[in-house]
Specification:
It is a single chain. The protein is α/β, with parallel strands linked by helices and 328 residues long. It is 38% helix and 17% strand. It contains eleven helices and twelve strands. α3 packs parallel to α4 and α4 packs across α5. The radius of gyration is 21 Å and the shape is globular. The structure holds ligand PBG.
């Protein structure tokens, strides 16, 4: 007779065994840190809506990179605040624009630091929408041309990867074609594929000065009611040649992350957005939660859901926590 154990297991696991049996592994290599560069700024200025985060002037953007490297984070995503905005967002594709200059400065000093750029028009247009307007609506196809020009100018400045966040239909294909035509076949595209029209972007829009001056982004960003639509958006980006898919925000969309991870074989990124960070910061400042543990647990949930990489304002602190063994 087999000697089946009939009693409940009461094994106390040692720390060593718990580490051995972990199902989710995380490393600083999967973290990407957002950096905001302000063309009108000299030095560093704290961002009010994102406690602990800063705007950097072009003269000090390398400080942000140094801090990343010190904590073991080797990758960033750049956001620019231009000195000038206009109706069509022309400073977005200016070869001497804020992001283009920031890339050059970073690459001059830290050629191995990996620079991803956010490709979108909302920080550059006077109306704050993510594309070119026709009456009161964003004109999808006109916007494709300027997105492609913008991505190309980032690549020329030395960006390692471009990440379109505008949610226009067809932008991945348009950007791919523009990059390939100039010999940038090896610059990958990380597509903000399933980007929801979310209230969690509030602190970012305050920080980037990119809130729409009228209307909202519901015409081009996704409806939080929808799940299958996210799969369709990802499918389209796969077909258009995306190299990495992204789900954004992260915490309220863990189901979407799981489903995209199961369904698609491209690498999957999640963006833990400004509102997610600000909520933890506020709750911690009020003494309501243990910031470090909440930070670690939230990040773990995103990786456990299936994301392979994470854009987060906590990247440096998470890398530190990994070094200390608080998460790993
Ligand atoms: C640009 C963009 C936004 C974010 C990333 N890229 C704002 C938006 O869509 O309004 C949000 C990031 C965050 O909240 O941290 N379109």
């Amino acid at each position: 007779m087999s000697n089946l154990i009939q009693r409940p297991r009461r094994l106390r696991r040692s720390d060593s065994v718990r580490r051995l049996c972990r199902e989710t592994r995380v490393s600083p290599d999967s973290l990407i840190y957002p950096i905001f560069v302000d063309e009108t700024l000299q030095g560093v200025r704290p961002i009010e809506s994102l406690p602990g985060q800063n705007h950097y002037g072009l003269d000090s953007v390398c400080q942000a990179v140094e801090q990343c490297l010190e904590s073991g984070v080797g990758r960033c995503i750049l956001f620019g605040l231009p000195a000038r905005k206009d109706e069509i967002g022309s400073s977005a594709w200016d070869d001497r624009g804020v992001v283009q200059q920031a890339i050059r400065r970073i690459k001059e000093k830290y050629p191995d630091f990996y620079v991803i750029t956010d490709v979108c028009m909302c920080e550059y247009t006077s109306h704050g929408h993510c594309g070119i307007l026709c009456e009161h609506d964003v004109d999808n196809d006109k916007t494709l041309a300027v997105l492609a020009k913008t991505a190309l100018s980032h690549a020329r400045a030395g960006a390692d990867m471009v990440a379109p966040s505008d949610m226009m239909d067809g932008r991945v294909a348009a950007i791919r074609a523009a990059l390939d035509a100039e010999g940038f076949e090896n610059i990958p595209i990380m597509a903000y594929s399933a980007k929801y029209a979310s209230a969690f972007y509030g602190p970012f829009r305050a920080a980037a000065g990119s809130a729409p001056s009228f209307g909202d982004r519901k015409g081009y960003q996704m409806d939080p009611h929808n799940r299958r639509e996210a799969l369709r958006e990802c499918q389209l980006d796969v077909q258009e040649g995306a190299d990495i898919l992204m789900v954004k925000p992260a915490l309220s969309y863990l189901d979407i992350i799981r489903e995209c991870a199961d369904r698609f074989d491209l690498p999957l990124c999640a963006y833990s957005v400004s509102g997610e960070y600000a909520m933890i910061k506020a709750a911690a400042a009020a003494g309501l939660v243990d910031e470090k543990r909440i930070m670690c647990e939230s990040a773990l949930s995103v990786f456990r859901a299936g994301a392979g990489m994470l854009i987060t304002y906590y990247a440096k602190e998470l890398a530190q926590a990994m070094k200390e063994g608080a998460i790993g």
